[in-house]
UniProtKB/TrEMBL annotation:
It comes from Volvox carteri f. nagariensis. Keywords: Membrane, Transmembrane, Transmembrane helix. InterPro entries: UstE-like. This is Uncharacterized protein. The chain crosses the membrane at residues 37-57, 118-136. Signal peptide: none annotated. It comes from the Eukaryota. One of its GO terms (cellular component) is membrane.
Length: 201
């Protein structure tokens, strides 16, 4: 599960950098060694915490039989992976069209959420945890719930959504079209307009 996620996301990120020539997330960071070190140290800790469920399962002496929780985990994981992959693909196609240069995407999944790829990423790690949980051999191993919780909190409140929202506001904040898009579209959870999450706009 983690291998499939890593291959897909790795291919997407490498392809994106190859096309644009840079990763805007590193702008203003690479020139500051101390900040760059802290940035990558935090990334390493994030990866370690995210992998806790898998590390516990791989370290187990025996494998538990498949249970209903495994099926639920696989369903959540698969849904999240598809959601993230489709959102990334739609954004790549959108950006590749010359007429969309300088525009924000508001099509496909992006018409339901301003960050559907991040929501998919969160679902992936909840799916991994749910799939691994039946194989835990001690109560303390359930602390691995820190994996999906960390991913969810960081993406939603720290390094994911807040950063991109700030960048988008700097770029399109004066655009009435963008403000209208924000008003009608969920911030995080991809849901129809009927379920607009007004308090997260």
């Amino acid at each position: 599960m983690v291998g499939l996620w890593a291959v897909r996301l790795g291919y997407y990120l490498v392809s994106r950098v190859a096309k644009t020539g840079k990763d805007v997330r590193f702008d203003g960071v690479k020139e500051q060694p101390a900040k760059f070190f802290v940035y990558w140290t935090m990334q390493a800790v994030w990866v370690f915490v995210s992998l806790l469920p898998v590390l516990f399962v791989n370290g187990a002496r025996s494998t538990a039989p498949l249970a209903a929780l495994d099926a639920l985990g696989i369903l959540v994981y698969g849904t999240g992976l598809c959601l993230e992959a489709v959102a990334d693909y739609q954004k790549s196609v959108f950006k590749a069209q010359p007429e969309n240069k300088g525009r924000f995407i508001d099509e496909g999944l992006w018409s339901y959420s301003r960050h559907p790829n991040y929501f998919g990423e969160m679902m992936i790690w909840w799916g991994v945890f749910l799939t691994c949980a039946p194989s835990f051999t001690s109560t303390w191993q359930y602390l691995a719930v820190a994996s999906p919780l960390t991913v969810m909190l960081l993406l939603r409140y720290v390094s994911g959504v807040p950063l991109l929202e700030k960048m988008a506001e700097q770029r399109w904040g004066d655009s009435a079209e963008y403000q209208e898009y924000k008003a009608r579209t969920n911030l995080f959870v991809p849901l129809p307009r009927l379920f607009k999450d007004t308090h997260t706009s």
